[in-house]
Amino acid sequence: MQNNRKEHLYKILVIGDLGVGKTSIIKRYVHQTYSTNYRATIGVDFALKVLNWDSETVRLQLWDIAGQERFGNMTRVYYREAMGAFIVFDVTRPTTFEAVSKWKEDLDSKLTLSNGQSIATVLLANKCDQKRDFLTNNSLKMDQYCKENGFVGWFETSARENININEAANFLVKHIIASENDILKSVVPDTISPQLNSDKEMTCSYWLSLD
Amino acid sequence: MTTKTNDPVGEISGAKTHDLADALDSAECDLDSNQDGVIQVQNLPPQQRAKLWMIALNVSGKGDSLSSWDGALDLPEQTLIHSRSQQIIDELGLPVEEGLDLVSDVESVITFYCKSRNVTFTPDLSWLHILKPQLGLQLSRKDLYNCFYAIMNKYIPRDCVAKGRPFHLFRLLLQYHEPELCSFLDTKKITPDFYAINWLGSLFSSSCLPEVSQALWDVYLQQTDPFLIFFLMLIILVNAKDGIFIHEGESKEEIISKLKHSPEFLDVEDLEDLFSLAQYYNSKTPLSLRKENHNLFGSSLVALKEEDMDLSQALCLPVSVPEILQANQLQPEGVRFFVVDCRPAEQYNAGHLSTAFHLDSDLMLHNPSEFALSVKSLLEAQKQSLESGSVASGEHLCFMGSGREEEDMYMNMVLAHFLQKNKEFVSIAKGGFMALQQHLADINVEGPDNVYVHWIVSTSGSHSSLSSADDSTDGKGVKSLVNKMTFALKSKSVNVKEKVISFIENTSTPVDRNTALVHSIISSVSLCFYLMLFLFPSLFSDEIDGSSISDDDRKEIVNIQTWINKPDAKHHIPCNEVKETGHMFPSHLLITATHMYCLREIAARKGFAYIQSRQALNSVVKITSIFVLSIKNSKLNSLIFQYLIPNAGDATKVIKQQIMNVLDAMESS
């Protein structure tokens, strides 16, 4: 077939507090399914998603890291060699948002790219289909938060309603590829602002929150 | 709830109606004589109970520890101690006079304990619950203190506080036997300390009715096994499981409260089953649970070593290498391990436990479909080895990695995969293959005759197997073997394809598998009851041979109604026979004067049934119907038949009565 087709394999971490919907997001993204029957993930699980990216093949290894505190020590070994990450919180539970910076710090302290940069990380505000109280609809504030905490962007997602999951993944992959190219060129990358990527069926929450 | 007299095993026996009180009064009462698995629940008068407990706690005749104390009640928290003491006495509803003395006793005991141990009394401690069952026994202040001290020292685990080590251990035990329930509670963020802190801190006296607590302690203290409490707690949870699953949507608080209160429903009648079940689960639990955690109990100041595994972080129950090696050699029943070696193929091929199944954990990541196949063949191999009774067989899956954290990350994922699928009896080899090598070096076995020499085999290359390595070093023992092995780790003659099932050695030593029959049925118990029959195969082998043939054309086909109407059919009980696989078959039990028939309905022929089994009533060793499920725990192998019967209470009565009739007839003849 297309023998000259280039293949990329990216390891992507999905982290965040217990019960924010990490497994559901992965299931939705990889298997197009959603189950209301929630069970806490034990240890670590993973799933594979293959994307056609321009003329290339991108294989995503999505690593589902248990949010339970008990696995804290054990799961950190799985950070190794990851190229990107989703940090997920639950818009209906403020504590899970407060934990986001903790997860981000933990990630950055344990993992950097060869050029010393931290890996591309996207913040997911999950369960956006549910009524939420604490999260301000002020997306500017969220933009600010992302900037300050080193996220390349954020999305409101819903695994249940299948909102924004593909978009968020594409967005992250784009950043991973960009940072990979940057490493190749040994150029220190700038944070790429989401607006620049509005081509290619990517909808960012900036627009969605206007709905 | 059971009894049957021709009982050479000496389990729950009506024949053995020792007069316990007499036994206690006879000068040198030796409680050990009652301990061969006998569980006796009886109602004791206070004095005898006091005597029994003091002997069991080894404090009879012990001096007065309080004599050196000035009796000053002057702790900062004294008001609290006093009010709590008063409160517990009020609950007893004693006459005023008596009550006052007791309050003073209790307050003194607690105050002195705090002072002598240099600890502070806090409201969340279960101490008063520990004292409560002892208060009706008319103990002197001295004896009350000695008993309290002995219980604290022997039976209450250290670190029995929120998030304490005992609760992490209990969670692992729960996961080992009830992975689904454990996962459910984890999901709800309910850790065992939420509901069990007082169970563990007071040996259930905080939650059980007073008379139940006392009867429970009668048995408990005689068992002299501090770990037993974990198994009793486990049974309580197993029993509460269905009630929890039915109301899955309940809040965390509702579930905790439900669990907390569940021991309140225990009845004195239930205790025998509670203990039998606890012993059954105990027999199905790796000994490492105790051996690796014995420092939870006792006054030893060695306490918890730093190097001890952090149980709060454990993925599943760790099992020590020596136990893995011994278990399959020594025990035909009880815990036997099926070892799953998860190291990379080249390491496995360079040397591995001869009985270990290789599951390449890298596959999970790099070739999921092949991994799924491997898991399938693993389970198949496990099944086959159980059927053949080989030395490699075991229903307990023990995962072995290299022992190096970085390398074992994929093994942990494989393990998590099994746990996620609610696989029960899953453990991890503590320290992995490294610990195995170390252990073999430590015990330094000499000569080729030693059993351990055969433990490790290598399959890399043509003949770098350890026996040949052994030849070349002239039998210099395992140390040299281990060196060879570590060296061989570097060789790279890997043929991944040839790695699998062949390593399950079929030594064709038949092992009685009847004891394995029982575990799978537990999940489905709810409103119905199990009726279980235990039989001696040796005495009635012909009949049992006939009954154990399944799906056999030779089985006689009969018309159910005709049989029910037969004049010698005294009772007819519709039921489901439960097989070891968990399968249920709609069946009918027919009781005649001397036999019990089980007719299994033929799905394809309405109204007809196979004669599935025929048992002489006098071959029944034990029969139980209980609130969860019961088990026989004896040294002799026996056959077990299980039936699911609505309203089993009546059915059991009927069958028991008939058995008694048969036995009476035998005796009088």
TrEMBL record, chain A:
SMART domains: RAB, RAN, RAS, RHO. Signal peptide: none annotated. One of its GO terms (biological process) is phagosome-lysosome fusion. SUPFAM superfamilies: P-loop containing nucleoside triphosphate hydrolases (SSF52540). It is found in: Endomembrane system; Membrane. The keyword Cytoplasm does not apply. GO terms for molecular function: GTP binding; GTPase activity. Its main location: membrane. PROSITE patterns: RAB, RAS. Coiled coil: none annotated. It is a lipid-anchor. Keywords: GTP-binding, Lipoprotein, Membrane, Nucleotide-binding, Prenylation. GO terms for cellular component: late endosome; lysosome; membrane; phagocytic vesicle; trans-Golgi network. It comes from the Eukaryota. The small GTPases Rab are key regulators in vesicle trafficking. Belongs to the small GTPase superfamily. Rab family. This is Ras-related protein Rab. It comes from Sinocyclocheilus anshuiensis. The gene is LOC107701102.
From TrEMBL, chain B:
GO terms for cellular component: cytosol; trans-Golgi network. It holds the Pfam family TBC1D23_C. It is found in: Golgi apparatus, trans-Golgi network. It comes from the Eukaryota. Residues 43-224 form the Rab-GAP TBC domain. GO terms for biological process: embryonic brain development; nervous system development; retrograde transport, endosome to Golgi; vesicle tethering to Golgi. SUPFAM superfamilies: Rhodanese/Cell cycle control phosphatase (SSF52821), Ypt/Rab-GAP domain of gyp1p (SSF47923). Gene3D superfamilies: Rhodanese-like domain, Ypt/Rab-GAP domain of gyp1p, domain 3. InterPro entries: Rab-GAP-TBC_dom, Rab-GAP_TBC_sf, Rhodanese-like_dom, Rhodanese-like_dom_sf, TBC1D23, TBC1D23_C. Residues 333-445 form the Rhodanese domain. This is TBC1 domain family member 23.
